[in-house]
Amino acid sequence: MGRFFAVAALAGAATLALFAAVLGSRGWWVLAVVLALVLLVGLYDLLQRRHSVLRNYPVVGHFRYLLEGLRPELQQYFIERNYDGRPYDRDVRSVIYERAKGIHGEQAFGTERDVGEVGYEFLLHSTAPKDPPDEVPRVRVGGPDCTQPYDMALLNVSAMSFGALSANAILALNKGAAAGGFAHDTGEGGLTEYHLRHGGDLVWELGSGYFGARTKDGEFDPAMFREKAGHDQVKLVSLKLSQGAKPGIGGVLPAAKVNAEIAKARGVPAGEKCVSPPYHRVFSTPRELVLFIARMRELAGGKPAGFKLCVGRRHELLAICKAMVAEGITPDFILVDGSEGGTGAAPLEYEDHVGTPLTEGLIMVHNALVGTGLRDRIRLGASGKVATGTDLVKRIAQGADYTNAARAMMMAIGCIQAQRCHTNTCPVGVTTQDKRRARALDVADKSLRVQRFQNGTVRQAMQMIGSLGLDDPSQLHPGLLLRRIDHTTTRSYADLFDWLEPSELLTEPRKGWAHDWAAASPDSFSRTET
Hints:
Elements: H1 2-23, H2 27-47, H3 52-56, H4 62-69, H5 71-80, H6 87-101, E1 121-123, E2 139-141, E3 150-152, E4 155-157, H7 167-180, E5 184-185, H8 193-196, E6 202-206, H9 222-229, E7 234-240, E8 251-253, H10 260-266, E9 274-276, H11 286-299, E10 305-309, H12 314-327, E11 333-337, H13 348-353, H14 358-371, E12 379-383, H15 389-397, E13 402-405, H16 407-412, H17 435-438, H18 443-467, E14 481-486, E15 489-492, H19 493-496, H20 504-507, H21 511-519
Parallel strand pairs: 4-13, 5-6, 6-7, 7-10, 10-11, 11-12, 12-13
Antiparallel strand pairs: 1-14, 2-3, 8-9, 14-15
Helix pairs in contact: 1-2, 6-18, 7-18, 11-12, 12-14, 12-21, 15-18
């Protein structure tokens, strides 16, 4: 209501100024005209649908766009004076916003990065580059036990739940996914009508709270899961073991946020605190986990089934691989979430210090699957600050088959990183259940931005792949990605990391892996040796 009050106050002030001008001196006419013009701006802001900030903050919201217009000059000012040590992050935000809005994304005067900086990474182009293909390739997800495989796009919407995001945000993401032909992960908050309304392909994620497929006692409900997994839009089902934002802990949605809609979607009582525990009840050993993934696939009618995790202890990952080998059962996909990713609010200590970053986690999972002879049966997804075509190319070179993005997709629908997600006061309607704030997010406009962002990012990645002299993302390899180690040394990822040979762990594990391999058991997540 505040936005309407502000415009009404302007209208009142303009009316008073007009009366004063009629009855008094000419000076009042100037004020009356100025107030009338400001009033017209405010009315336009309320009615337009392109800018969420202006819909929620008429007139004053223009100051934000004024500062945005000055961004390049202000950025250089702060960089030169070392007031801001993260120019790269700001550049990435610009790429996302401009690509989503359909603005040409080229930049003058070359790189602003210090190419001599330790940690700087770059790709090796070819003297014989190739044109990108007209048809963007997709990744077939579905192992030998899957009867309904799915062709995954190279970039998709990562897991974000209804409850964490507003209804309009979910609608915009799904409509954009439907128009662009890529997948939309529901997050663990349940399968809702907002995910289904626009027909976008869905990855239905099930977390430790089993929201949307749970009994009144919080147990997994197979009948309910079978019914919802049968939706035509549900193309894959995923079990969340952990997430990058807060690995090792569950989630809590305060009672005040658990309204009737969210309660229905999650299968929990309205007005009561909603908790997802840090552990699962459906399994307690690696073998039981693998068997439950197979059960999910069966209940889903043969659709691809897999799991998501932020990688922790290596022997636990190897224990899961040993269980796969022992049972002859594999998931159709594994989604690796980096500790630097995640859009969920979490304790600062977890955000900064718990979990494996995406680069190390992704390479570890890829190696574990190669070393156990399972890599060709399982597709690997990567999620964690994937925002540009460069990110996509790097992750595939490091072992991924496809990527997911959460934060970048939020920015595509208008997120300005106000960092008020957990307060229910998001100024642009992305992460709030306040309907008055959420109405600012126009679904038709923002869904088009999601489509543009995904399409532009994948096209840019394909152009980069062509510049490397390759025809297809599957030809990417770690030797093409280099990192500066110190001011005089660069090394490729092929040399920086150990890369296991197929089935090596089953025959003669190398020294760096042998200890963890020996400690891994398919029947326990604990180490079997000291």
